[in-house]
Write a structure and sequence with these properties.
three-stranded antiparallel sheet, single chain, 66 residues, alpha+beta
Length: 66
Amino acid sequence: MSPEERTQILLEARPNSWIALSEDESKVVGRGGTYTEAVEEALSNGEEDPLLIRTPEEWNDLVLCM
């Protein structure tokens, strides 16, 4: 999955929710309002070791200066 695809998935997800990616991070294998819901969906989709990402409550612009 490209960084652009991952960004799009996160932007389209519900705020303050969980996204489960396959171990190789190539596809979404679960979603949920809680960590447990996302893991359970991933397990039911055959993914034993998902990568979990939590979406923020709201997206904010961030500027980093060095």
